[in-house]
């Protein structure tokens, strides 16, 4: 039995509730995160800080979401972003939805001329997209192997990374 194909598209204004449900379901079924990830995305949206917001859908039902928002670096390097949260409905996990969303989001960043992207997550998963632990970029309180970067330009950047304040509000 083959699975229905999913499509990836930019978030639409009417998608907010469906996105929140997918994020909650994904993180409720996960050992990772703080279960406030849906609030992070809602706050980023309210504050106009969702640089990239993509959904995966099947038959017009949202089954996955990825957010990318700006980050700041202590050395003031411009053009850096953070990937996450990445969420896939539990029944659609391990079927390529997350990988498709991640690849599409990184392509959108590359096309926009971004300098780079950071992610907090499993090195085995994000490593396949080119993310690596980068000693020049750190996130306070996080083991270096789980905080990874993907440089999209030759511009040098170093220092402590700070996410949008929406991430702190969900703790």
Secondary-structure blueprint of this entry?
Elements: E1 7-10, H1 16-28, H2 37-46, E2 52-58, E3 61-70, E4 72-73, E5 80-88, H3 97-112, E6 116-120, H4 123-126, E7 132-133, E8 137-138, E9 147-151, E10 159-162, H5 165-169
Parallel strand pairs: 5-6, 8-10
Antiparallel strand pairs: 1-2, 2-3, 3-5, 4-10, 6-9, 7-9
Helix pairs in contact: 1-2
What does this structure look like?
- The chain is of the alpha+beta class and 171 residues long.
- The strands form 2 sheets. It has a 7-stranded mixed β-sheet, with helices on both faces. Strands 4-10-8 form a 3-stranded mixed β-sheet, with no helix packed on it.
- It has a single domain, classed as Gcn5-related N-acetyltransferase (GNAT) (Aminopeptidase, 3-Layer(aba) Sandwich), CATH 3.40.630.30.
- Strand 2 (52-58) and strand 3 form a beta hairpin.
- Helix content is 28%, strand content 29%.
- Helix 1 runs antiparallel to helix 2.
- The model has no long low-confidence stretch (mean pLDDT 92).
- It has 5 helices and 10 strands, in the order βααββββαβαββββα.
Measured distance between first and last alpha carbons: 42 Å
CATH topology: Aminopeptidase
Mean pLDDT: 92
Enumerate how many helices there are, as a single number.
5
What name goes with the CATH superfamily? Answer: Gcn5-related N-acetyltransferase (GNAT)
């Amino acid at each position: 039995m083959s699975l229905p194909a999913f499509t990836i598209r930019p978030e639409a204004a009417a998608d907010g509730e469906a996105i929140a449900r997918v994020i909650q379901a994904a993180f409720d079924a996960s050992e990772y995160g703080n279960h406030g990830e849906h609030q992070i995305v809602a706050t980023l949206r309210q504050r106009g800080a969702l640089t990239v917001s993509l959904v995966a859908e099947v038959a017009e039902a949202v089954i996955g979401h990825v957010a990318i928002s700006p980050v700041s670096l202590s050395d003031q390097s411009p053009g850096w972003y953070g990937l996450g949260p990445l969420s896939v409905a539990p029944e659609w996990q391990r079927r390529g939805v997350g990988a498709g969303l991640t690849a599409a989001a990184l392509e959108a960043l590359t096309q926009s001329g971004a300098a780079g992207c950071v992610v907090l997550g499993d090195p085995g998963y994000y490593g396949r997209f080119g993310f690596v632990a980068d000693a020049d970029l750190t996130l306070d309180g996080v083991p270096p192997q789980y905080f990874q970067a993907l440089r999209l330009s030759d511009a040098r950047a170093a220092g402590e990374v700070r996410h949008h304040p929406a991430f702190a509000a969900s703790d």
